[in-house]
Each structure stands twice: as structure tokens, then as C-alpha cells.
Amino acid sequence: MNAPQTTTLGKVPCTIITGFLGAGKTTLVRHLLENAGGKRLAVLVNEFGDLGFDGSFIAGCGIEGCTQDDIVELPNGCICCTVADDFVPALEKLLNRENPPQHILIETSGLALPKPLVKAFNWPAIRSRVTVDGVIAVVDGPAVAEGQFADDPEALKAQAAQDQAVDHDNPLEEVFEDQILCADLILLNKSDLVDAAGRERVKAEIAQHLPKAIKVVETAHGKVEPALIIGLGAAAESDLAARPSHHGEGEDHDHDDFDSVALPLPQAGSPEELVARVAKAAEAEGVLRLKGFAGIPGKPMRLVVQGVGRRVGHHYDRAWGAGEARDGRLVVIGLKGFDRAAVEAALAG
Ligand SMILES: Nc1nc2c(ncn2[C@@H]2O[C@H](COP(=O)(O)OP(=O)(O)OP(=O)(O)O)[C@@H](O)[C@H]2O)c(=O)[nH]1
């Protein structure tokens, strides 16, 4: 392959939004769409679970000027591993539109590594047409504060004592590190759930993982001035060496560490009852993320349930369509071998 061009002139800028499961990527994308200031945006959204949930959630938001065509779903698991089959063709399709977007937001799945995606911008088919304007890593403040991505300190100590290069054996930590190491800007999100001391601890933890200083901006519900995110002009595809990764050239990203399943979510008598069931499911060994929707008898709206770690939230997002089956569904993502039986038992009530 020839050396990548470094000019960004005439290219459509793309912002890659990365961040662990449930960190707040979709929330940020919605905020950016709502505050696009007249700019024609399009969104490519990739999910690990097969529910097509994030896409429907963004598309159903009723944002003015944002049509169904502007939201493209890439549901095949993990964008970083399906670059040739899914990502490049989807991007070309957007660029070939009669009225192409002025800026493209790409929301990766929470388990995707951003670097292979940045690299894909050097593919001959697209490299003269698009550039990575910036990679934004959304960090789940409370999850980091609670040590979710911390390695087992005993294991690290043992490795160091044996003079072995310190290698993370924690798939959560590896994904987290790869995501922040690729970033041009980090959003410390869910700042409303962490006190000031906690936020400082999280920043120190982030800094510990980074070889260079990257700006960290505190956000709640992804509310950030869009100009901070859009228009960074990073041309990240020409700057790959500055973005180290745990996963080397040609090395496969090990999805075998994680598992996902879509389960039916039976109706419950009340939102509280449904949330209680989902919260119980969230406690099952190895579960990382739950999201889905269900019907509540007598309610014309569908109820969305979101679990990140053990925190479960809910809200009504839209009315059920006329004749639409009110079958609830829940995507559960966890570490390989998570306790599916316990999840199913919890959901059955
Ligand atoms: N309290 C609080 N909740 C938040 C914040 N940002 C997002 N959430 C909630 O966290 C949950 C996950 O948010 P999403 O935006 O769906 O996260 P995501 O990163 O897109 O999730 P995946 O696509 O599954 O990886 C939702 O219930 C959000 O409402 C925040 O700043 N504060």
C-alpha cells in the first residue's frame, strides 16, 4: 500500500466514538445530533449484540433534520473485525449519496478496538474521500472508580517479581486501554455519579495508562460543546504509530473473551417489577451489560431497560406501532461463560 496521504482537504471528516460497554456513546451521539447546528451529519453505529437497539434508539429520537437514512447500523458483532465486509462498503454508500453528509459519526461497539478502524481509513477505496477527524473515548466514570478495569494487583505483583514483562490477563483492561490509547480526547462521562475526589482518582488512573497527555473533559449524559468534539482535524489515520495497542499487526482481537445473547423479555405488571428482574439478572456472574425493551400491560409506550454493571435504568422511549407485536427483548453481554441460566431465571421472575 502506498504511504497514506496526509492532506485532509476535500475529505469528509469522521469522528470515531469509542468507549466500553455502556459508557455513554449512544447518549453522546444523540446529543451531537441534537446540537448539530445545521450541519448534515450521518451516523454509523455498530453493536456487539444483535438487537439493533442503538440504531433504533437514535433513529427513534425525532431529531429535526435527522432521517432514518442518516443512521446506518452495522450489527455484525464488532466493527474492528468486519472492516472489509461491512464498514468500508457502508461508508462508501454514505459518501455516494446525492447529498452526502458533511460529517460522519461512527459509534463502535463497546468491545471494539478503535485502531483497526482508524487503519481502515487508509484503504485505497476510501482514503482520498474521508479522514478521521478525531477519536473520542467515552469513559464510564463510576465503572473506573469502582475498579472494573483494574488488573488483579496480586497477579501483576507476581509477574513483576518473576521479572516478566507485565502483561494484562484481564480482557476488560485490555479493551479499556486500547480505547483510551487511541483517543484524541477523552470524555470522563457519568460525572454526576462520581464525587470530586472520585473523579480525580479516575483521571489519575487514566493518566497511568497513557504515555502522552490527552485532554480529559468531564461530562454528564454526554453533554459537551459539539465544537470540542467535531473539527479536531486529527487525521488519525496518518498518525497510527502514536496510538499503541495490545493487539499487534494481523493479530486477531479475541472476541472469545466475551459472549452475548438476546433473550425474550416477558411483560411484567409494572416498570418496577421489570427493573427488579433485570437488576437481579445484572447480578449474575460475568454479566457486563443488558439492554432491551418490553411491554407493560395497559401502557401504549414501550419501556426501555438499560443495565450497566449493576446499575439499571428505565424509561419509555416511544409508542408501540399499530399492530406491532409487543414482544420484549433483552441483549445480555458478558464475559465468556457468564451465568446465562441465572439470567434467565431472574428474567422469568
Ligand atoms: N447517570 C448517568 N447515566 C448515563 C450517563 N450517560 C449515559 N448514561 C446512561 O447509561 C446507560 C448506557 O448509555 P449508552 O449511551 O447507551 O451507552 P453506550 O456506551 O452507547 O452503550 P453500548 O452501546 O451498549 O456499549 C443508559 O441508561 C444511559 O442513560 C451519565 O452521564 N450519567
Automatic annotation (TrEMBL):
It comes from the Bacteria. CDD domains: CobW-like. It holds the Pfam family CobW_C. Keywords: Chaperone, Hydrolase, Nucleotide-binding. GO terms for biological process: cobalamin biosynthetic process. GO terms for cellular component: cytoplasm. This is Cobalamin biosynthesis protein CobW.
